[in-house]
Amino acid sequence: MTFSEIPGLSIEKENILFLIRQGRLPHALLIYGPEGGGKLALSLALCQYLQCEKPGPSDSCGLCSPCQKSRKLVHPDTHFSFPVSGTNVLSDQLLQEWRQAVIENPYLNISMWQEKSEQENKLSNISAAECRNMLKKLSLTIYEGKIRILLVWLPEYLGKEGNMLLKLIEEPPPDSLILLVAENRDFLLPTILSRCQSLGIPAFRDDDVQFMVQQSGIQDAGLARNIVRTAEGNMMEALRMVADQVHPHSEKLVRWLRLCYKGDAAEILSWVESFSVQGRDVHRQFLKFGLRFIGQVLSYKISPEEEDTFNEDEWKGIKGLAARLEIGEIQDLATLFDEHIYFVERNANPKILFTALSLNLRDVLNHREIKTIHLI
After folding, report:
1. How large is the average pLDDT for residues 162-187?
2. Same structural domain for residues 194 and 315?
3. pLDDT at 334 over 90
């Protein structure tokens, strides 16, 4: 991957290139940022730049043999470690699957990786055996590149086993670089943080997401606008929705709210049955979109002005809810969506979760008292 293939993040790209030009690239660099951000993509672009035979002032050439191997994540002097599930399972055993997942979407998160590797609902970690394998990788002789690189994706999954790497991070072999690519630096051991130079990568701007959506061939302006709005800077989610080629969440949300208002138990259960089989990331993004939708209902209730961020059908639903509900009831809806986002993140059973939420929504939409249902 080249730097130019990553939209936006011009300041962060220049910071990395400045360190290289000044000969100040640290031997251990922590690149961190939010889910769906550019931290892994930038790290891969950095690896390719360092291995490139003819790098330019701002990017790798993309044409030489090392660049071609780096693009396919098969350069012999760039090594990878990442979370896996199972006893005595090492990254190397799932390396082909990880390469394919990253090439398809270099902005992926742990849930997407688990889905791609068929490890859903299993505990992932970076084990002591994996740490010993990292030590072995950085002891290998440089085969054909300029530098030996170890990229550790999501090092927050190390846990206490990370203490095994302290000496390696502090004093790696000559001509070596350790890249730690994290989503939450606060989950890393302080002893690891103190031994790394850190570079924070922000979420993508809407303009950056819009560019990628357009580059992907989306012709429907309404669909593109809805994807950008729903993604909220998360490029992983934007690319997933582009691949689905469907209007993300809005039609499903409006239909669900109408079913809840009608209160037909059979129809609600049928909807829950079909939706609950989709992945946790889809559930979370759906509820996040619902929370934004309800937020717009509240805004319109207070100040009835339309914005161009919602389409005609969505505005019809927003106006209908604003006319029907009192401010307190709209706030109750927002609280329900917010609470159930938390439940999704805590791996609550999706069928039970959406059944309970549907019943609560039915009560609010029909001006009834909410019955508390404990999911966790």
Report:
1. 91
2. no
3. yes
Residue 10 lies in a domain: yes
- Calpha distance 12→92 (Å, rounded): 30
pLDDT digits (tens, 9 = 90+) for 21-43: 999 999 999 999 999 999 999 99
What string of DSSP letters covers 46-77? HHHHHH-SS--SSS--S-SHHHHHHHTT--TT
Among the three residues 216, 244, 272, which one is the final residue of a domain in this structure?
244
Percent of the chain with pLDDT over 90: 54
- Residue 176 near residue 150 (C-beta atoms within 8 A): yes
Give the residue numbers spanning the domain of 349.
250-365
Helix (H, G, I), strand (E, B) or coil at 267: helix
- The CATH number given to whatever domain includes residue 128 is 3.40.50.300
In terms of domains, do 102 and 232 share one? no
235 contact partners, CB below 8 Å, separation of at least 6: 36, 37, 38, 107, 204, 208, 209, 212
Please tell me whether residues 34 and 151 are part of one structural domain.
yes
Token pair in block for residue 285: 């993004």
Which CATH number is 265's domain given? 1.20.272.10
Q: Residue 108: CB partners within 8 Å, gap ≥ 6?
A: 40, 101, 102, 116, 236
Residue 375 confidence (pLDDT) above 60:
no
Query: 267-290, pLDDT tens digit by residue?
Result: 999 999 989 888 777 888 889 888
Q: Looking at the whole model, is its pTM more than 0.85?
A: no
The whole-angstrom separation of Cα 142 and Cα 149 is 10
How many domains is the chain built from?
A: 3
The residue written with tokens 């966790």 in the block is: 376
Residue given tokens 């209007």 in the structure block: 247
Task: Point out the domain boundary residue: 220, 244, 268.
Answer: 244
180 — pLDDT class (breaks 50, 70, 90): very high
Specify whether 140 is located in the same domain as 223: no
| 373 occurs within a structural domain | no
Q: 303 is written with which tokens?
A: 């100040």
- Distances in whole angstroms, Cα of residue 209 to Cα of each of 40, 214, 238, 251: 16, 9, 7, 21
